[in-house]
Amino acid sequence: MPDLKLFHFDIPTWGNYGDKALFPVVRDAFRVLGPGGADGGVDFTSAAALRREVDTALVERINARADAVVIGGGGLFLQDTNPNRLSGWQWKISAEALAAIEVPLIIYALGDNRFPGQPEFDELMRSHVGQVLDQSVFFGLRNTGSIETMSRFLGTEGISADDSGLGTARERFNPGLEGFNPGPGGEAAHVHPGPIRFQPCPTTIAGLLYEPLRGRRPDPREKVLAIQMLVHPRQQAAGFDAEVIHQATVDAARMLVAKEWTILSVPFHPDDAEVSRQLVAEVPEVKEITLYGSDVGFFAGFDLFASIPYVLGGRGHAQMIPFGVGSIPISLDLHAKLGYFAHDIGHPEFIVPVEPEGMAAESTTTETDGAGITGTGGNGHGEGTGDVARRAHALAQRIVDTIDQAYAHGNDLQDDLAATRQRLFDITAENHVDIRDVLRPSSGTGNSGAATGSPGAGTGRCGSEASSRADRESRTVQVPRASADIRAEEFHLAAVSEAEEISAAQSRELTKLRREHKQQLESANAQRKAHEAECENLCAVIKQKETQFERQSADLDARTAELDAQTAEKNRHADDAAGLRKQLDESDAQLRSINDRAAIAEAKVLIDKTVHGLAWRARRIKRRLRR
């Protein structure tokens, strides 16, 4: 039978070691545990970055060349990484493009990655992930905590703790280890299929997938500890005190060095570098081994941790990768997924509580949810909340005590974790048998699940009920990956990651240019709007001035009319005055004429009287003279 052709949606990167290591191991898990013998092998025909938008052309290539599509693994159920409104989570594919994929989907080792304090996932994500579930022949999540939270979110039922093959933490308790919980040995239980299945992250079984790692186990008697630590801004937003936690990590390293421990700082991501620099600077005995960067292959971390018996981390893959090669993983309680994993391997005591000292005083709570951390009901440090050194020392002592206890039971713990790792491997192998039986039923000769059953077949019981487990497993040939395979995958990953980084750099540059162009447009629009507003203001001022001018003009016209009326009135008065003056002049002339005539007449009368008087007197004189 020809090889099963798979297409992989992954995250090619060299910036985050967890992602760098994860996706090659996913492919290798299919190559090792996939169909074998007469059933043929597994051939990954191609891959694409799941954070890039899936277009129609890619869907057409998938439909033409692949028998199934693998998505994962990783904590892809997160909304603020690669935010988009096509899916609402990290896989950037629209509902229409998703529906156009005609081959079955295999959801492989995904996880609920919601950080403490973040809001619930929204309805877009619920609808989209529900559609993915409907189109999947296998929907496997990497821890039982994610199964519980995503089952509630989607309104489905996941497998129970008993179905996982791991047993409960209570069943795994062993008083002989004074608080540590090594699990029972024996064969893994069969995982009963359900809508959501338990599929461990394949990095947790890497020691069984690669020939160079088989038989290797770090010596738990050696006092060697690797540290990866970072309090992410998302965690700081939820109230985690980064200054205290980072200083506590440094203090714990210093205390362990005093106890003759060898301490390595192993930053997984460029964001870890600052804490690593602080650790190396304050504790000179600490040696740094960087796992991120283009010059570090995906296998480097597995090879490194295979010789380090104890690891202290704050990232999910800083637990899972070391566990996968035999290290004892101890983590700070910074994210729900860390507790999920510790519970699944039967050792919740591997999680060091950071409360109360590691929390900001106002953030301590007694409540918890799927993305939170259980609180203590008080800040626990009263009026000393500003005493960073004291709080850091208290947390550091708790870290050291946990490591000391692990060291005291190192051999027993390592044996227990090896048995747990084998059970995770068996669960994974069983899942691969189920996937194979869905895609290639024993009674059929088709080449893909798309031809043998409708999407969503994986939500029922996978495989033939009639075939026995032994018969099914006999059809799987498990050949671990050799050094040559690892080198080939590292070459492929380096080439793809470099191309992806170049593409991402170009995308970032394009995004930067678009952002600058957008800013320029926004600035131009803002200037235009400012000019428009200024013009509107000027127009308003002009209109106001025009109105004022019109009002003043109207007032002026009214005053002019009034003045004209007054002038006309004045002119009339002037004319009247002129007429009166003329009349006066005429009257004066007439009066003078009259006066002249009167004066003459008076003078004549006077003369006449004078003459009469003189004549009278002359007569009297004459009469006197006659006497």
UniProtKB/TrEMBL annotation:
InterPro entries: Polysacch_pyruvyl_Trfase. Residues 362-386, 438-483 are annotated as: Disordered. Residues 372-385 have a biased composition (Gly residues). Residues 57-152 form the Polysaccharide pyruvyl transferase domain. It holds the Pfam family PS_pyruv_trans. Residues 496-548, 577-604 form a coiled coil. Keywords: Coiled coil. Residues 441-454 have a biased composition (Low complexity). This is Polysaccharide pyruvyl transferase domain-containing protein.
